[in-house]
Design the sequence.
């Protein structure tokens, strides 16, 4: 299932939290050999994890992490503007309607459907919060996966070669993509909305009782 | 929309905090809601704001130290998505008592807040509150979310600029692509033509336009082009050549604005 969780709430899901940061260590440090920091717990974390980002996480039936990505508004400090300005030829993209999406990670056993579910979640965020684009940082291996699930970003710039290659790209909000992505993810519109509302719409009953 | 344009223009020109208070009253009248409030809170609980809440409620809020209980403030410190108050955690006894008290003071049973997180754990909120049913409120928030987000950011920038000691982030210059995009739009090219000229897709062009618009404090593209010209950030060649004197950008603002709106 999909969960939308702000960093400050993540410790309520210790299994999910631990497995996500460990899967990130496996993907970004071991496999891609990016210069990321892995702490003594085996977690890959950086300074943007300390800015209370919003995570979208696919949770496996056993409670562990199946895939995740991390969002921050481009009106605040972002990884793209701090570290990848040269990929954008000095462009700094800032708008309350554009959120940055980084650390797209898939669990080792995750199927392409999980990647599809994550792209679906990105679309749900855009739809719900009037976003026009997501601005992403990703490795080229992901480009193939994105294209497979029918949600290819427009690459704005890349650096490095082979394993070291890293790209910055934009996903525009295209409402017509939703059906296609739902199909690739193998999910219904209703369940996606249910997951979204469960994450963002808690305590509705208590609110009504208090009225 | 015209009235919001006027609002932004007045906001841009405001040079004293009491003008912001008047502008917020204007916002309430424009949106026809019970209240509009701008609330700024530092990480250590210093607060400051403008709005249409009854003064008695504001004093009561401070006296009761509601800042520690208010689910809107507590919830918004942790998030950056626009939030309908129903989505916040009102489950504690203290929160429920606070809510009853707020309703008794005419705040309304519905609310919609745009959180803006600042450096060092600051929080700014723009809130609309109203007495109505859930369906009507959902219609309101869906219809106005986008404008409301922009207004929140621009109002916050202005409030920070006017309040000493809370210096805003310096205004960012337009990037090369943003400058190019607005220049071509100002010259009357369509979005499709501009995307071709810049060798990017229309979707990506839109991202640059969104970003430029935000940096310029503009509500829409027409407004952004006009402002970029009047600030001297872009030069629209043809218009400058045609001008007989004075300030070319100003002279041709009307014409440029019209062509950019196409």
Sequence:
């Amino acid at each position: 299932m999909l969960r939308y969780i702000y960093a400050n709430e993540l410790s309520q899901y210790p299994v999910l939290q631990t497995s996500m940061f460990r899967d990130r260590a496996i993907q970004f440090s071991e496999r891609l050999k990016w210069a990321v920091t892995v702490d003594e717990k085996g977690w890959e974390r950086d300074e943007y994890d300390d800015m209370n980002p919003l995570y979208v996480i696919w949770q496996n039936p056993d409670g562990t992490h199946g895939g995740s990505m991390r969002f921050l508004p481009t009106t605040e400090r972002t990884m793209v503007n701090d570290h990848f300005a040269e990929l954008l030829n000095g462009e700094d993209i800032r708008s309350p309607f554009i959120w940055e999406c980084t650390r797209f990670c898939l669990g080792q056993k995750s199927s392409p459907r999980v990647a599809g579910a994550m792209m679906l979640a990105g679309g749900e965020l855009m739809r719900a919060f009037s976003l026009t684009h997501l601005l992403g940082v990703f490795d080229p291996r992901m480009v193939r996966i994105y294209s497979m699930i029918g949600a290819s970003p427009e690459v704005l710039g890349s650096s490095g070669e082979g394993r070291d290659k890293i790209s910055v790209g934009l996903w525009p909000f295209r409402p017509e993509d939703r059906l296609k992505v739902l199909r690739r993810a193998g999910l219904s519109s209703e369940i996606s909305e249910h997951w979204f509302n469960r994450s963002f719409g808690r305590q509705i009953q208590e609110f009504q009782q208090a009225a | 929309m015209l009235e919001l344009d006027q609002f932004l223009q007045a906001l841009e020109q405001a040079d004293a905090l009491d003008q912001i208070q008047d502008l917020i009253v204007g916002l309430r009248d424009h949106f026809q809601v019970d209240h509009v409030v701008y609330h700024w809170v530092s990480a250590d609980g210093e607060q400051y704001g403008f709005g249409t809440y009854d003064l008695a409620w504001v004093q009561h809020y401070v006296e009761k130290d509601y800042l520690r209980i208010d689910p809107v403030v507590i919830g918004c410190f942790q998030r950056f998505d626009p939030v309908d108050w129903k989505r916040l955690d009102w489950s504690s006894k203290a929160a429920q008592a606070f809510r009853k008290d707020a309703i008794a003071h005419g705040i309304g049973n519905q609310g919609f807040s745009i959180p803006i997180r600042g450096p060092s754990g600051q929080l700014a909120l723009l809130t609309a509150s109203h007495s109505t049913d859930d369906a009507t409120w959902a219609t309101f928030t869906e219809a106005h979310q986008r404008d409301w987000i922009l207004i929140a950011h621009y109002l916050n920038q202005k409030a920070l600029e006017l309040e000493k000691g809370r210096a805003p982030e310096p205004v960012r210059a337009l990037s090369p692509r943003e400058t190019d995009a607005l220049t071509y739009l100002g010259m009357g090219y369509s979005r499709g033509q501009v995307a071709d000229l810049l060798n990017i897709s229309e979707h990506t062009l839109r991202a640059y336009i969104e970003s430029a618009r935000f940096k310029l404090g503009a509500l829409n593209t027409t407004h952004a082009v006009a402002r970029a010209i009047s600030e001297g950030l872009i030069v629209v060649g043809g218009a400058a050549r045609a001008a007989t004197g004075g300030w070319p950008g100003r002279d041709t603002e009307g014409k440029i604005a019209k062509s950019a709106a196409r």
